[in-house]
Amino acid sequence: MVEIIVAKHAGFCFGVKNAVRLALDHAENGACYMIGDLIHNRQVVDELGSRGLKTVDDADGLPEATPGDKPKAIIRSHGAPRSLYRRLAEKGYDAVDATCPFVMKIHDIVEKHYNDGYHIVIVGSAEHPEVKATNGWCDDSATVIDENSDLEPLKKYEKLCVVCQTTFDGEKFEKLSKKIHKIGSKTVEIFDTICYTTYERQREAVKLAAECDCILVVGDRSSSNTNKLYDLCRAKNDRTYFVNSLGELDKINFPRSGKIGIVAGASTPTESIMEVKTYMGQEFGEASNEEFINAINNETPTGYREGKSVKCTVLSANEDGIHVNLGGKNDGFIDKAEACEDGEYKPEDFPVGSVIEAIITKKRDESSGCVLLSKRRADLMKKTDEAVNQIRNNEIFEMVVKKDTKGGLIGSLGTYRVFVPASQVRLKFVPDLKKFVGKTLRLRALDINDIEHKIVASQRVILQEEKDEKDQKAEIFWDNVKPDVVVAGEVKRISPYGAFVSVDGIDCLAHIDHLSYSHIESPSEVLEVGKTYDFLVLKTDREKQRVSLGYRELQPHPFDKCMEKHPVGSVVKGKVISVLPYGAFVEIEPGVEGLVHVSEAAAAYVKDINEVLHAGDEVDVKVMAYDDQHRKTTLSIRACLDEAKPVSARAEKAAKKAEESDVYSEKSDNNVFANLLKDVGDKQEEKAEKPAKKATKAKKTEDAEKVETDKE
User: Fold this and answer.
1) Considering only CA atoms, which of 43, 25, 191, 27 is closest in space to residue 103?
2) How does residue 508 score in pLDDT terms, banded at 50, 70 and 90?
3) How many percent of the chain have pLDDT more than 70?
4) Is the dihedral of CA 247, 251, 257, 263 positive or negative?
């Protein structure tokens, strides 16, 4: 018995799937061209061509765009130089970018470091389209090297930036990196840009090559990564064969026992892998097929299973129905009500000896001893068999689980029995399969046996693909989403403190403080659930999986609009927002407030600003100055007023009170300067009075003495 083992990481990678999906989508929508082969697989390229997609070598091969039309050109998964995007725009074409996200990342690295003065080094094949595209992001100035290159010329560069072709051999790249570090350049930055799925694919291929008696590498010989898989497997196992078509399998002398491994490149379609797997299964048999057959055969102790589709030969037909032979000791009977889908039964339509297909409805009828069948149900089931044709191209289908059995779950798709092995139900082992009975599973066919109408299917492969895609998106997200980057996000949910936004499937938070420059009570005043907006990334925390977004930061600031609308010298009607001892803040535009200093609050001096202004008052103010750097505005009420006319009755009353008071009097107890002058004056008067008093006193004494003398 030969065991067939298919590598888990076989077939289309994420980038190739995305490219093919984009191409198929645009093939249905009108005129579209491919710039070069979308991927390195002739079968896929020819299929796209049959859908109406034309391939040209470069932008110069595109026909001129008709004025008013906007034809599309697809950028291949390997990427394109920067010049191609410009050329497409010049020719009036919209670029549909199918570049692999991992290749895009390399372009970003190269462009940035090239602009920063680094010399770019690309590890890979100089003739590979991905390498050529990457070189186009540094004006084709890069040095392309591989494991056999002389590194001596690199010594003349002080700053080196090293990137790698995504499908390059990981082990060879590691050795090259160590050599580059030793060449003596002052600054060397090395980026391991090999796609991680390439690592996994290569690692798994080497492991299978060591374990299996024979290895089949399925793919196109023009594919770089498929050729690398072949080289890696061949180094471990001499019995390694490159398979581009089923015809090549006939030339291989396979072992009649042991293990045969199947690996495939990233550009190999799943149907090619399944063709090889099916061929090998039919030729040698395989464990999964055997498991499926055993599970089905163990369902019932007899070959006459209710619901089974069988071919039978007509023995006779009369007004009651059709008697048939099932090929065994039991005959069958089809009631006239179960003979035709449209209900118009005619015995002459079923001549003796003709073969018909019917569904067993009862294993044995007690009265007649016959197996009861329904041709009507079989005809209906044939229609549903069209669904089986749709899943041959790796399409996902749904199935309601009818029962569990030892080793898996059983259901049906049309006339085909579907078996889902226990190992293919979930990503992890499921100890109890009974809970899935009656549930709907999303499945992909692993093997379709048209002779026995049996399908082996898996839900696990779908879940794994979704997980891998989610992980890849998350990896790309965290590598590219940094502070100050603008991202598009869909608002998923509103809360009192902000909006939860989905960016490439990652949940982010836009806090209410960063939604509007003016005060809002709820994020719903600015954003709407279900709509997509541009946001500015404010802060990221990869460890805690948190991203803070800002919306208002991308909106024009109200202060800038206000400066244009109300230049210095303008008179504006505003609303008093708050009053403080040193002045009042007046809103002249939503979100823009200016300060009216206490000295500018009225035509005349006011001791207490609360006597003339209160929060909520509407006043005319004059724009005196703007501080653009600190976004501050200086306003004046006094400048708007005629000095003969106080701003209001309240201001008039305050001014009158100021005039009648002793605020400006030197005798005022509230005027410190006046009190000081008063003290000085009093002391000077006292000094002046002392001599006068002495003179007066002396005079009085002299006069008294004279009087006394006269009396004597």
Assistant:
1) 191
2) very high
3) 83
4) negative
Structure confidence by residue, pLDDT tens digits, 641-662: 854 455 455 555 554 554 454 3
What is the chain's mean pLDDT, rounded?
Answer: 81
pLDDT at 368 over 80: no
Which pair of tokens denotes residue 255?
Answer: 């072992």
130 is an active site residue: yes
**Sheet containing 159-164: which strands, arranged edge to edge?**
143-145, 119-123, 159-164, 187-190
d(CA 625, CA 146): 65
What is the tens place of the pLDDT at every residue in 31-49? 688 888 887 777 788 777 7
Mean pLDDT, residues 293-307 taken together: 49
Report whether pLDDT(228) > 80. yes
3-class secondary structure, 495? strand
Question: Is beta strand 32-35 parallel, antiparallel or unpaired with respect to 119-123?
Answer: unpaired
Catalytic residue among 47, 130, 291, 589: 130
Spatial contact of 232 and 356, defined as CB atoms under 8 Å apart: no
Q: Which residue has the tokens 């090559």?
A: 209
Residue 40, judged by CB atoms within 10 A of its CB (0-12, 13-18, 19+), counts as buried
pLDDT digits (tens, 9 = 90+) for 666-680: 333 444 434 443 454
Between CA 457 and CA 421 the distance in angstroms is 8
Residue 183: pLDDT band (50, 70, 90) is confident
- Side-chain half-sphere exposure of 144, counting CA atoms within 13 A: 18
Hey, what are 566's tokens? 């109300």
Residue of 373, 459, 411, 398 whose CA lies nearest to 296: 411
Residue 377 vs residue 197, higher pLDDT? 377
Contacts of 23 (CB under 8 A, 6+ apart): 32, 34, 38, 48, 53, 74, 98
Strand-pair category, 309-317 with 214-218: unpaired
Distances in whole angstroms, Cα of residue 48 to Cα of each of 23, 24, 153, 405: 7, 7, 43, 42
Output helix, strand, coil percentages for the chain, rounded to the nearest 5. Answer: 40, 25, 35
Which pair of structure tokens corresponds to residue 535? Answer: 């946001």
Closest among 281, 289, 288, 277 to 218, alpha carbons compared: 277
Q: Is the pTM of this model over 0.85?
A: no
CA distances from 138 to 82, 131, 176, 193 (A): 9, 12, 22, 17
Assign 216 to helix, strand or coil. strand
Give the count of beta carbons closer than 10 Å to the beta carbon of residue 488: 11
Question: What beta strand segments (E) does 168-246 contain?
Answer: 187-190, 214-218, 240-243
384 confidence band (pLDDT: 50, 70, 90): low
